[in-house]
Amino acid sequence: MSPSNHRRIVLARRPPGEPAESDFRIEEVAMPVPGTNEVLVRVIYLSLDPYMRGRMRDQASYAKPVGIGAVMEGGTVGEVVASNNPAFKVGDIVEARLGWQEYGLSAGHNLRLIDPSLAPISTANGVLGMPGMTAWFGLHKIGEPKPGETVVVSAASGAVGQVVGQLAKLNGCRVVGIAGGPAKCALVKDELGFDAVVDYKAGRLEADLQAACPNGIDVYFDNVGGPVTDAVIPLLNF
């Protein structure tokens, strides 16, 4: 049986810089009741992604900003606890964008059924969700790498970057990651299996990148832009 109230986190103000706890507010509100064709979902996992910072700004972008007092945007994985929609039954595991709250309502069109027997359900917010899909489509449909080519990935230890690198390795490519700091670089090289990694915080980005890519760069998967991308561009093979 669902509780009568649940908690949610709303945007209390627009952060002037790095987000702080005071930019958010925890509210306890009445449990939503599903209407016609609606589904009530208990949130089990919440995704935390870089795009959320952009959604806190009040400026034009690819998606509208989160309103002041509105539930913070976020991908979720949860369990259906009540359903008036014939496509979903109680106990189903679903992926949806229900935001930072314990329970959420959906009309069903934005729910994706998850098969818990295939992988841990948390992966629907990760390697089998938006980050993994971004990596797969960006690499294979845009980059189109060929076996033997050099693929460079910035933010290589991130949710998207680490998948890109492993997919490129499976495709027979030589993969070079760019990450910041010894711990992230060790993860990229030793655990994720990249062929080489460049630490952009070491102060030798251009020289280290050139040394790691003696035959140039065939595919660049850019997750950061800025000075890192500026260092990559001269090495691109056209």
Please characterize this protein's 3D structure.
This protein folds into two domains: 5-124, Medium-chain alcohol dehydrogenases, catalytic domain (Quinone Oxidoreductase, Chain A, domain 1), CATH 3.90.180.10; 130-235, 3-Layer(aba) Sandwich (Rossmann fold), CATH 3.40.50.720. 24% of the residues lie in helices and 25% in strands. The protein is built from six helices and eleven strands. The protein has helices at residues 51-55, 130-143, 159-170, 182-191, 205-212, 226-232, and strands at 5-11, 24-30, 39-46, 76-83, 93-96, 103-106, 112-114, 150-154, 174-179, 196-199, 219-221. A five-stranded antiparallel beta sheet has the order 6-3-4-5-7, with no helix packed on it. The chain has a four-stranded parallel beta sheet with strand order 10-9-8-11, sandwiched between helices. Helix 4 links the parallel strand 9 (174-179) and strand 10. Helix 2 crosses helix 3 (159-170). The longest helix is centred in the middle third of the chain and has 14 residues, at 130-143. The chain is elongated, with a radius of gyration of 21 Å. The termini are far apart. The model has no long low-confidence stretch (mean pLDDT 95).
